[in-house]
Write a structure and sequence with these properties.
heterodimer, A: about 130 residues, alpha/beta, Rossmann fold, about 45% helix, B: alpha+beta, Chemotaxis protein chec, 2 domains, six-stranded antiparallel β-sheet, 5 helices, about 35% helix, globular
């Protein structure tokens, strides 16, 4: 598996750091970690870079994670980038809504590096 | 008035009529009484469990000895996450500045670089995760209730008052020799 270029989207800079650290702890070889603090910023990053993986929060100001994924899937070259939602909203309806918007997976906060390993690494292999 | 109109419709019509007659009625008709939301058995335990889960997973700390109230707590930091939907209320987290700083340091894995700038952010996220974890433990709430983004207040001279006539409870823990508390205020 080649080193991955990852985009982490969260309005909390602390959570962005924790997610980045968890990816490394999960054994993912990271080429570069890009960050965005809301969906709108994330779309700009996605238009400018070729990404291997996106991890995104849902509840964010400006543009939330669901709208971000919807719009991301319309960007040429970004249709198949795995997007994993990492969020406190973990109800079944939220999961279904996220997947129907185009998300590839779902992780509830708080999360462990093992959960990242189980749910993120297979998406990169697939 | 049409006799087939039931009492509820009459009340609504009366209310609308009064509003139309006076935009700012001094004595508005009383709205139909809603059943008051009562804290269910187990919610306190759910809030405790949610707090313990967040601290264990995200801060690597096992919390013990929950107490019901801590009036002597000096809350330099207060984080709040709103609940809206089938439950309306606020989950709050209160701690001293030192305690909030230690929580942030734990979350960042002991990385002191930029710690001071990240204390409020980390504190808000802890509250956010506690609120999410609490909500996920209650079947009716998981899908029927949304969370707001966290708000953090800091300072030494402030007090918080809830104007809602709802239920409230508080659980407190010791974290690295400092007390902190988690509250649930229910509005409806």
């Amino acid at each position: 598996m080649k080193p991955a270029r990852v985009l982490i989207v969260d309005d909390s800079s602390v959570m962005r750091k924790i997610v980045g650290r968890s990816l490394r702890q999960a054994g993912l070889e990271v080429q570069e970690v890009l960050e965005a603090s809301n969906g709108s910023e994330a779309l700009s990053v996605a238009r400018e870079h070729t990404l291997d993986l996106i991890l995104s929060d849902i509840n964010m100001p400006m543009m939330d994670g669901l709208e971000f994924v919807r719009q991301l899937r319309r960007i040429e070259g970004a249709q198949n980038v795995p997007v994993v939602m990492i969020t406190t909203e973990a109800g079944e309806a939220h999961v279904v809504q996220a997947l129907s918007c185009g998300a590839s997976g779902y992780i509830r906060k708080p999360f462990t590096p093992d959960q990242i390993k189980e749910r993120v690494i297979p998406l990169l292999r697939g | 008035m049409d006799e087939t109109i039931d009492a509820e419709q009459q009340r609504v019509q009366l209310h609308l009529a009064v509003k139309a007659a006076s935009p700012t009625p001094r004595f508005a008709p009383r709205a139909p009484r809603q059943p008051r939301l009562v804290i269910r058995d187990g919610w306190r335990r759910d809030l405790e469990s949610a707090t313990c889960e967040v601290f264990e997973i995200m801060l690597g700390t096992l919390l013990t000895n929950a107490v019901e109230q801590c009036p002597q707590l000096r809350a330099d930091f207060t984080a709040m996450v709103g609940l809206a939907g089938s439950m309306c209320g606020v989950v709050g987290l209160r701690a001293s500045a030192e305690s909030a700083r230690r929580m942030a340091a734990k979350m960042l894995g002991g990385d002191e670089a930029g710690l001071n700038e990240n204390v409020q952010d980390a504190f808000g996220e802890v509250c956010n995760m506690i609120a999410g974890s609490f909500k996920a433990r209650i079947a009716d709430l998981a899908d029927g209730c949304a969370l707001s983004v966290p708000t953090v207040i800091s300072g030494k001279d402030y007090s918080l008052h809830s104007l809602a006539n709802g239920e409230r409870f508080e659980v407190a823990f010791t974290f690295e020799d400092n007390l902190f508390s988690v509250t649930l205020d229910l509005h409806s």
